[in-house]
Amino acid sequence: MENSKLSSALFAGTHFDRKRFAADFARFHQGPTPSPAAPSAPSPEKKRKRKSGKAKAKKNKKKRAGEAAASSSDVVEGFNVFKGLEGKNDELRSEKVEIVKNEDSVAVRRRKEVEREIERAAILRKRFDIHIAGQNVPAPLESFEELISRYGCDSYLVGNLSKLGFQEPTPIQRQAIPILLSGRECFACAPTGSGKTLAFLFPLLMKIKPGSKGGVKAVILCPTRELAAQTVRECKKLAKGRKYYIKLMTKDLSKSGNFKDMHCDILVSTPLCLHHAVKKRHLDLSSAEYLVLDESDKLFELGFVEVIDSVVEACSNPSIIRSLFSATLPDTIEALARTIMHDAIRVIVGRKNSASSLIKQKLIFAGTERGKLLALRQSFQESLNPPVLIFVQSKERAKELYKELAFDDVRADVIHADLNEEQRQDAVDNLRAGKTWVLIATEVIARGMDFKGVNCVINYDFPESAAAYIHRIGRCGRAGRSGEAITFFTEEDKPFLRNIANVLLSSGCEVPSWIMALPKLKRKKHRVDRDPISTLPNED
Ligand SMILES: Nc1ncnc2c1ncn2[C@@H]1O[C@H](COP(=O)(O)OP(=O)(O)OP(=O)(O)O)[C@@H](O)[C@H]1O
Question: Taking the model in full, what pTM does it have?
């Protein structure tokens, strides 16, 4: 088809202005487009048109680019995001730097705060002679009020403390309470009469909801019935105003109790009674959240270990918090106890296994058994400052000495394992009430018993170990009061004298140099067959 015919066909019906487009028309008719190497010289008119055409093309190119960008952004979202943020990057970067700077300063501030807290805790520990071992030990309490501000304690509990006349926490309370409240397990060793009971009772009362259903929430083990009864009394005093179920496991209860329907938040027991109740009466302890072993070294003594094991096993709640408290904690017992505890913190107030510094201690050589009775009579004649506790090594000897003192018209009573629960409690109550001046006792009340105001402890029979000595004399010099401890010794006791003399020395009491020159005894226990006390004719 000819070019003219083609254009006519294409533009059929359209008016084509040949005159106006003469040049272009001519080009179609001239044949192929001239090569760029030989361009025809443009007319001024053409130049102007081309210039304006170029400007348009440039404009269009820009527009297309914009459109392309816009259309491509429709497809590739990220592109647009980055494109859009391109301008903001610097802004963001500086914002990020600002945030990092802020975070840095928050972290720095927090670190400084933590450092200050650690320093404050160290100062408090130094001031109160508190020694710790363990990871991330919570800071000691500065005051009881901190229990409210730091741990959200119900104010009625702290109110009860002030009603009981407790103004300041004792050192063991300062450290052990935060540890237990933080859900950590602990070994706590602090002098006799330094408030360990409150140190373990208070966290239980704070954490356990009163009257909660679903089984026993806390188990406290004590080595004797008397101590268990005393612990229940103390717990009830602290919990006054709230309906906690605080129960003492008696012999009768452990033999015939129906534990299915028993409401009990806190259960206090001796190991054997509890063991019996678990094994024979199916007492369920699986919901217990706390297990406290008070006088723990005594509990772990030979003969009790298996029973303690079975109680620990019965307290099967995996998140149970266990704690051990005592004034004496031998390394062997600590190692044994560690096997049942996890990540436990060790707290020692003062020196481990030492007597209270509030007690004036004396050793008196009495020569023989007869010499001891004379020395006792003489000391009573010189000054009797009741209440006085006298320790002997067996129930038979307790009965013998009781008869001698009764003959002398001394208002005395006696407590030993042959008496029933009620008689033992009466003996304790009578001393507390001031009805008796002198209480003659076996080891039964040597541990943990808190007789207000005992002025003097007499070890009529030499104690069988340094730990026994510390606990016996610890019945006086309690809660900040001073006390006196007199220990008689005979020729037979001399080999063991040095062990006790070490306790005197470490609590600042004087010891004659000849005693310290005695050979050290490897044996830890000292048991002697003694001549009878009695000087009175036999009634039989
Ligand atoms: N914060 C306190 N302020 C004043 N007295 C306190 C405080 N805490 C406890 N007590 C009192 O101190 C006495 C001794 O307390 P507790 O019987 O708990 O001593 P302990 O350390 O358990 O002694 P032990 O080793 O002989 O068992 C008690 O009469 C108790 O009421």
Answer: 0.79
